[in-house]
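Rather than argue in generalities, we reproduce a single protein record, letters for residues, whole numbers for local backbone shapes, just as it appears below:
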Amino acid sequence: MTIKTSTYELTKEDIEADFATRTPEPVTPYWVEIAGRRFPVKQVLAVATGLTKDDFVSSRAQSVLRRLGFHVQSSAPGARGRVPDSTRAFAGVEWGLATSPDGYEEAPSGKLHLPGCAHGVGTPVRTWSPDDTLTAWRNAPDVELRSQADPGWCSDCAAIRGTRDPASPATPEDKPVRTGRAERQAISEAARLVLGPGLRGEGSVFDSGVVTWTAETARSLDRAMDAASTDGTFRDRLVRQLAGQPRPVVLLAAELCFVQRLPLVNVLPQTKRRLLQDILDVLDDKPPVPEQVVDALHTLGVFNGGQGFNQQIPQHVQWLCRFITLWDGLAEDAREEALDDPWAFRARAREVGDDGAPIRNSLLALVWPTYFERIVSAADKQSIHEAFGAALNDPSGDVDRDLLALRDRLDPDGHLDIDWYTSPWREEWRAPKAVVERHGWAVPAAIPGRPLVPPALDFDPGEATDRRSIRDAALRAGAGRRPIEDVLAQIDAATTFYVTMQSGDQVFVNQDQSIHLGVIGDLTPEGERPVTWWPPVAEADVPHAVLDLLASKSTISDAHYLLNDPTPPDTVPLPEATPEFAARLHYDRAWLTDVIELLDERRQLIFFGPPGTGKTYLARALADFIAPGGAVKIVQFHPSYSYEDFFEGFRPTVDDKGTATFRLAPGPVRLLAEAAAANPSVPHVLIIDEINRANIAKVFGELYLLLEYRDAKVSLQYSPEDDFRLPANLFVIGTMNTADRSISLVDAAIRRRFAFVELHPAEEPVRGLIDRWSAAREHDVSRGALLRQLNDRIGDTDRDFQIGPSYLMGSSARTTRGLERIWEHDILPLLDEHYYGRMSRAEVRARFGLAALEPGVVDAGGTLEVGDEFPETAPA
């Protein structure tokens, strides 16, 4: 087992024997059972390896112990899943009763909680047995669950939404499914380290002997942050403002920065930790950030705060100070009511003022993850409410309550686990950019020679003048009666046909292995669109993106493509990745779409990474997807490659008289640029393989300017009379092997002109590629675990030397003899070269040879390592 570049010989049996006589440390949310006792996962791994607990986070310990065969369990409320056969409907919404061997605690309101729930009460009215609770659950009336009392059920612990658990245990062959519910619960559990003691007036997680959530301490911190200090970063200013402040004030500052930073996905855990440590270093004893807080910071975030949220951290901390001042002034029964009732808690938070809406919304989602959306923008909440409100029979007008009701209405069994910021939800509420352009439409059901007819709909679109009127009609007719995915698909199809589609657009349909296309006319009174059909073209004359859309089940899709368009747009939009394209590559569709959008925006990008990560394969596949045959060229750079080879230069030739002479000949870039200029509506792609192996500045010459300014023209080195420009529809994709030349050594001018996309064996989408590829082909053996173990041994210090999956994706890699040949003749020679002068040939084989790797991984071929792909789900 390799951890932090060191190798350890670990077995489950040896660990169990060692811990048979050891004393367990206090149990944290993640633990394993040994000899009938619960040991925290970090205690087990630290003892087994001799490492300190600071050397790794809880998720790493969980992953290692799972790989050794331990069953990692969690003591977090609700982590045991639901009681068997307890799933039932309340007012049409599916719920299950959470398992709790220690019973259920009744609050004064009559609501039942699991012991340890963040919303439980200090002194329960009574404790219900599991049997009595299950009987009450089954006999409860069929009304909305959250409104029930005597007993009621806490939906953050005692009741589990949907028909499946948010983070079901995974088999070795199946990664655990990460869902929005699981992430919201996990981040809430992490936040409890600070919010739990704070809201209940207990000692700080940074110093249990100090109570920080008091009005006096909060006012002191608020005043300290008001002190004039404008120089430096927020961290620099805060450290100066805290200098000389009492210990509780400094600790409270660390707590509130933890609360503000914790849920952000766009801030690294290490960055969050450094901020907290800098604050604690103000104190004389400079206490380290506690272990459990470090682990909590590695919990996967739940929203991207954007520039505004990141820059407003001082205002957010001060708003939290004012909240604490208000909270500390409440009577005990008022605080208990707010901890037992999300709407009472929100009412108290609103009393602080509306100037802190983003941090207030974040706080509500951390304290009540099943009631409040992980949306900090009040404007986004309002837009979602307006877009989907027609689905509610009796909207309250309260945005938070209606969003909760919408989730129940649109996803009653919990399978969709709606994320409002992803497709298809985002398209309904987020206003698109106002762009007037012509479209090409893939319509699989169209019949060449006939007009386009409206898509089949289960509702009357009425006048159909805009998307909102169509959406409202569809939601009123279909929400709660048909699957919401079908309703949204019909909304999209109707909007496309009646609103977005315009006269002059093109239509594509596949028939008899040919592509028929035509120009669409205006909508007729009968609701049809006439089409002027053109002669068919071969399938090779359109990009794979269009073919994928025509082979799909979509009614109407934007092909982002126009064929031989006499009036092309100023820019050529590239298509989104299709499910078929993603399946062919075994990559995540969203990741591929992000890459295409990046290429669309920047016009040139470079895939970089170690050897064997599929850079050239991906570049060629991407080019074939967005451009038709004949519109793609590939060149390979090498040390002797020059401007004359790349763009244009003099070539030796023989004239009519047989005399040796020279002629000016265009290179691949000039030829492709001329083809792109002649057909401006069609994307053209230049692939530059191994772009860092040539003298890039020398090869590009004056083209450097045109890469950054596509609308500019330059006088050419060998054709000074010509003004040349790079067409907007010419895209450049480069590949760069970082084992040949470090990415940090690339010319700054190239860095500025190209977007860089890393393909690395330790990061997705490359990390799990072998497993996805093997599963798709139903192979008996996957070498994913073996490759991950090899790269763990190479480690982060030699990150550019790690090995890509391509070496192990041939048929021979699935046999023992073939694997040995690959290791001996491909992988080990590569590592010999990498470690030349640092390791001898024998040392390379002793460390990286097949015999040096774990026998179980090599012999079995490896299975997907559960937990390796994700940050931890809650702090340990």
In short: DSSP finds 34 helices and 27 strands in the chain.
